[in-house]
Amino acid sequence: MKSLQTGHIGLNVTDLPRSVAFYRRVLGLETVTESTTPSPFALLGRDGRLVVTLWQQSTGTHDTTRPGLHHLSFQVDTLEEVHEAERVLKELGAGFRYDGVVPHREGGTSGGIFFHDPDGTRLEIFTPEGVDATGAAAPSTEAPTCGFF
């Protein structure tokens, strides 16, 4: 393989309309396709690129003690974009792992916000630089913040 990139992420959800509304609002995604057969699903994208597929075929909440997805991370260009996402998430009542924007590691310039979607899937929105200007401390000095400790 000469080049390799993530294509799209597929997530199981318990309530498709709720999850579609969440991901559209928080990430600014558009519905590309939505169907109720054979199993309810929605394909969400941006600028002609598929980003997330949601499949309504599960119950309960994301179980972090089982093998599988640890967390899903989205990169934005600026700290202001991270703050805007944080504002929207607070309006939606999302649960945050840490208070505010935090660096990925102590003294690092990258960092972001760490939160949960309506089904408990751990998510991150981060920027590669500028977080050091906030003066926030890394939640853990022993491991990367995205470990959701």
Question: Can you characterise this structure?
Answer:
The chain has about 150 residues and is an alpha/beta fold. It folds into two domains: about 1-60, 2,3-Dihydroxybiphenyl 1,2-Dioxygenase, domain 1 (Roll); about 70-140, Roll (2,3-Dihydroxybiphenyl 1,2-Dioxygenase, domain 1). Helices cover about 15% and strands about 30% of the residues. It has helices spanning about 15-25, 80-90, and strands at about 10-15, 30-35, 40-45, 50-55, 70-75, 100-105, 110-115, 120-125. A four-stranded mixed β-sheet has the order 1-4-3-2, with helices on one face. A four-stranded mixed β-sheet has the order 5-8-7-6, with helices on one face. A hairpin with a 5-residue loop joins strand 2 (about 30-35) and strand 3 (about 40-45). The protein is globular. It starts with 8 loop residues before the first strand and ends in a 22-residue tail after the last strand. It comes from Kitasatospora camelliae. GO terms for molecular function: lactoylglutathione lyase activity; metal ion binding.
